[in-house]
Specification:
Blueprint: H1 7-28, E1 36-37, E2 52-58, E3 66-72, E4 87-92, E5 99-104, E6 109-118, E7 131-134, H2 147-150, E8 151-154, E9 158-164, E10 166-169, E11 173-176
Parallel strand pairs: 1-5, 2-9
Antiparallel strand pairs: 2-5, 3-4, 3-6, 6-7, 6-8, 10-11
Keywords: Signal
InterPro entries: DUF2141
Protein name: DUF2141 domain-containing protein
Length: 182
């Protein structure tokens, strides 16, 4: 979800949402599901100045394999292009719940993200097995989504980016296993 507010009110809103998520998470999900993980987790801690993205990933088919989060620039021609990612974080999936991964961003501004649930841990997308999701949560078909549908804007502080995973269902359908969150 991309919120458009002034920098000061946006920063306050993001901090409030993160604090509310932590409080509500204690009652609605296992504590481990609310933990911010990854090698850059401290950049999303309360009071962090950013630029950083708190990537909240949900809709897992199972808990096997690794999760890869890749960041792309604001150049639509580089979105999902081989060798054009700005950054990658890859970690094992957690035993349960959503995964909340912090990624330090190189600057404030426009970006896109791709998330791969590499269930077979072969290091690449296996269409028949793996899950995939994007910032902006575009509806997926048999081709890559448009950059405009997958972009987000990082403003002051920590930007929350919700990503729902999609898996192949049937011969030609790729969609989430769970309902989208608003």
């Amino acid at each position: 979800m991309v919120l458009k507010r002034s920098n000061a009110s946006f920063r306050g809103l993001v901090r409030s949402l993160i604090a509310a998520t932590a409080v509500l998470g204690a009652f609605s999900a296992p504590a481990a599901a609310q933990t911010i993980i990854g090698p850059e987790a401290a950049a999303c801690a309360p009071g962090a100045r950013g630029p950083a993205a708190l990537v909240r990933i949900y809709g897992f088919k199972d808990r096997g394999g690794n999760l890869r989060v890749q960041l792309y620039s604001d150049n639509p021609d580089e979105f999902l292009a081989s060798g054009k990612k700005l950054k990658r974080i890859e970690i094992p999936t957690t035993p349960s719940g959503d995964m909340n991964i912090c990624m330090v961003l190189p600057r404030f501004g426009e970006f896109s993200m791709a998330v791969l649930h590499d269930r077979d841990m072969n290091g690449r997308l296996s269409v028949s097995k793996d899950g995939v999701g994007f910032s902006g949560n575009p509806k997926l078909g048999l081709s890559k989504p448009d950059y405009e549908d997958a972009m987000f804007v990082a403003r002051d502080g920590v930007t929350v980016v919700d990503v729902i995973l999609n898996y192949r269902q049937g011969l030609l359908t790729v969609k989430p296993l769970v309902a989208r969150r608003d």
